[in-house]
Amino acid sequence: MAKQEKSLHMTVLMTPDMGNFSGNVHGGSILKLLDQVAYACAARYCRHYVVTLSIDHVMFNKPIKVGELVSFRANINYVGTSSMEVGVKVIAEDLETNTKRHTNSCYITMICVDKDHRPTKAPELEIETEFERQLFEAAKMRRELRQEMARRNAEITAGIADYNTDVNT
Ligand SMILES: CC(C)(COP(=O)(O)OP(=O)(O)OC[C@H]1O[C@@H](n2cnc3c(N)ncnc32)[C@H](O)[C@@H]1OP(=O)(O)O)[C@@H](O)C(=O)NCCC(=O)NCCS
Predict the structure, then answer these.
(1) Cβ proximity of 16 and 66 under 8 Å
(2) Which end of the chain, N or C, is more open, meaning fewer C-beta atoms within 10 Å of its C-beta?
(3) How far apart are CA 47 and CA 42, in angstroms?
(4) Which protein residue's CA is at the shortest distance from atom 16 of ligand 1?
(5) Which of the listed residues 39, 49, 53 should we mutate to test ligand 1's pocket, taking the one with most ligand atoms within 8 A of CB?
(6) Whose CA is closest to 100, among 109, 108, 91?
C-alpha cells in the first residue's frame, strides 16, 4: 500500500507587496499562506477537495521582515471522519545573516467535502511513530477544546438580542 502523504513544506520569499509601512510582513499575508499550505497538505493527503472550517488563534509573537524566506511546515496531525487538523510551523530565515527563527505555529481544521460541498470521509490516518501518536492525541484534545469553545460562545451570545440574526451587528 502507498505511504500516506502527511506532510507538506512550502517556502515563500516575503516580497514588498506583502509588507506594511514598517517593512514587516502583514499578518493577513501570513494568514493567507497558512490557509494555502493547509489546503495543499490536506487536499494532497485526501486526494480530494477540502475546505477550511477554522483557523485556531494565531499569535504573532515575532515579526517577519520583507526580504526573509519563510517556510511553512504543514502536517496532518489528526483525522476524524471528515475533519483533519493540519499543524503548521512557521520558520523565518534571514538570508543575509543565515539565521532562522520559529515565528509561530497554528492549527487549521480542514474538511473533506464531496461535489455538493457536504462533509465526506477522509482517509483514516495511519499512525506509524510514537511522535505521530503524540501529535494525534494532542490534536484530539484541541478538537474537544474547539467544540467546548463553540458551545461556550453560543451560550455567551445567546442572551444578546439579535446578535445571531441581525446582519448589522
Ligand atoms: C465545512 C462545512 C462543510 C462543515 O459542514 P457542517 O454541516 O458543519 O459539518 P458537520 O457538522 O458534519 O461537521 C464536519 C466536521 O467538522 C467538525 N466540527 C464542526 N464544528 C466544529 C467545532 N466547532 N470544533 C471542532 N470540530 C468541529 C465535526 O466534528 C465534523 O468532524 P468529523 O467529521 O471528523 O467528525 C461547512 O461548515 C462549510 O461549508 N463551511 C464553509 C467552508 C468554507 O467555505 N471555508 C472558507 C471560508 S471563506
Answers:
(1) yes
(2) N
(3) 8
(4) 83
(5) 53
(6) 91
Q: Dig out the grid coordinates for 112 from the structure.
A: 473533506
- Judged on CB neighbours under 10 Å (0-12, 13-18, 19+), 56 is middle
What are residue 75's DSSP bridge partners?
A: 7, 87
Cell of 76: 496532518
Please write down the HEC assignment for all residues of 76-112. EEEECCCEEEEEEEEEEEECCCCEEEEEEEEEEEEEE
List, for residues 50-91, the tens digit of each pLDDT value: 999 999 989 998 899 999 999 999 999 999 999 999 999 999
CA-closest residue to ligand 1 atom 12: 119
Q: Which residues of 4-16 are buried (b: 16+ CB within 10 A; e: fewer)?
A: eebebebebebee
Distances (CA, A) of 77 to 15, 31, 51, 105, 136: 30, 19, 17, 13, 5
Domains for the chain: give ranges and CATH numbers.
7-125 (3.10.129.10)
| Ligand 1 environment, Cβ below 6 A | 51-53, 80-83, 111, 113, 117, 119, 143, 146-147, 150
What's this model's pTM, rounded to 2 decimal places? Answer: 0.94
